[in-house]
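Lab notebook, design round three. We kept the backbone fixed and only want residue identities now. Task for the bench partner: fill in a sequence for the structure below.
Input structure tokens:
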């Protein structure tokens, strides 16, 4: 990809964000709604590594979030440590109509804290808020758990798009804020972060190379 003088002045950051939570809470549909504005009512469990790269501008800088889906591993309680490695952000998702998925949030947070190797911006997401008539977890319960764990909180619906874009953007902006704070306080961190400054050409193969370079898989 040719780069002129103007291109070289634009700083680009690539941050890995993971989506975790029990099977069938809607993780894949949250990602497809955010990345492609699509929803599949009959989506099958994810198989193989899936991620989408989304861009947004913050403070005049291009920030790219590479958002990873658990690839169906959660059905076997076998989400690998490699999945979490290098993650700067995480959405911990439960289904408001299934209390068991809410009760398992603690296990997912523990796993995330055990395996993540950076400061992670975390949001608790109560998905499927369109299912009000069969709700098993109240908004107040979600807020209380998020507050006790120091998480952002939002209820979403991948089905009707409620709060999906907002949830992802809050996490990405918080990552940027965390990183900016560290840059201000640490010259060594600034040098380390330069590894995450990349120029992506949208080619999936190139993204895969960059993924391994930055320890994402």
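Proposed sequence:
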């Amino acid at each position: 990809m040719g780069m002129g003088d103007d291109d070289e002045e634009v700083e680009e950051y690539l941050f890995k964000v993971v989506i975790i939570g029990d099977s069938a809470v809607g993780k894949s549909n949250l990602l497809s709604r955010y990345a492609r504005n699509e929803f599949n009512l009959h989506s099958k469990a994810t198989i193989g590594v899936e991620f989408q790269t989304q861009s947004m501008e913050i403070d005049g800088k291009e920030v790219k979030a590479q958002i990873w889906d658990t690839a169906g591993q959660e059905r076997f309680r076998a989400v690998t440590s490699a999945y979490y490695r290098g993650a700067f952000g995480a959405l911990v998702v439960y289904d408001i109509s299934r209390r068991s998925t809410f009760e398992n949030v603690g296990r997912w947070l523990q796993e995330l804290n055990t395996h993540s190797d950076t400061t992670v911006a975390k949001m608790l997401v109560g998905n499927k808020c369109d299912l009000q008539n069969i709700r098993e977890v109240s908004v107040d319960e979600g807020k209380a758990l998020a507050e006790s764990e120091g998480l952002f909180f939002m209820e979403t619906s991948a089905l009707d798009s409620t709060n999906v874009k907002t949830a992802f953007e809050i996490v990405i902006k918080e990552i940027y804020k965390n990183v900016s704070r560290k840059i201000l306080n640490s010259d060594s961190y600034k040098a380390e972060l330069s590894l995450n400054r990349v120029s992506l050409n949208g080619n999936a193969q190139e993204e895969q190379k960059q993924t391994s370079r930055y320890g994402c898989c």
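Keep this in mind before ordering anything: Residues 1-8, 197-217 have pLDDT under 50 and may be disordered.
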